[in-house]
Amino acid sequence: TSPFAWLRTRFYYLLIRLYFDQEFSIEEFTRGAKQAFSVVSQLLSQRKLELLDELVSAEVLQVLKEKISLLPDNHRDALAADIDAIMYTTEGDVRIYYDDDGMKFVSILMRFWYLNGANLPDEVPGETKVFQIVFGDESTKEKRHLLTANYEFQREFTEGAKPDWTITRIEHPRLLE
């Protein structure tokens, strides 16, 4: 990321701590986001969408129900990210906003890079190369794909609101489109 984007996100984290949650820590949030990403991606892969009610917004869940039913098995398998297979995580966009009724929200977009052993072709739709990593020698090689996902987490900070983060956007480029 650019130095400007890094500074901007750090400024937003300071605002979150000053005005919304004095205990907020991006390190703790990132640990929780990784765990949520792993759980949600595995449930998506297993088509257990009914278990996502408390984790994912109703709007996103409705879209997922339509998309998951149309996915080929190898793409569905590629959605699953074991927490130990997450190679890199970074924050994307951070937003603080108020709606017309005075409700306060914080939204943080997280980007994940993870290894997955699904049987994907070398080229996926859109003619974009999927990175492959081979483990072992030629006779016992195990092919893994380096895949990406974007999950947006939102929390309402209006007085009296539940202190829960909800996933409001799920993107698995070239898999869940």
TrEMBL record:
GO terms for biological process: protein insertion into mitochondrial inner membrane from matrix. This is MAIP1 protein. One of its GO terms (molecular function) is ribosome binding. The gene is Maip1. It comes from Cochlearius cochlearius. One of its GO terms (cellular component) is mitochondrial inner membrane.
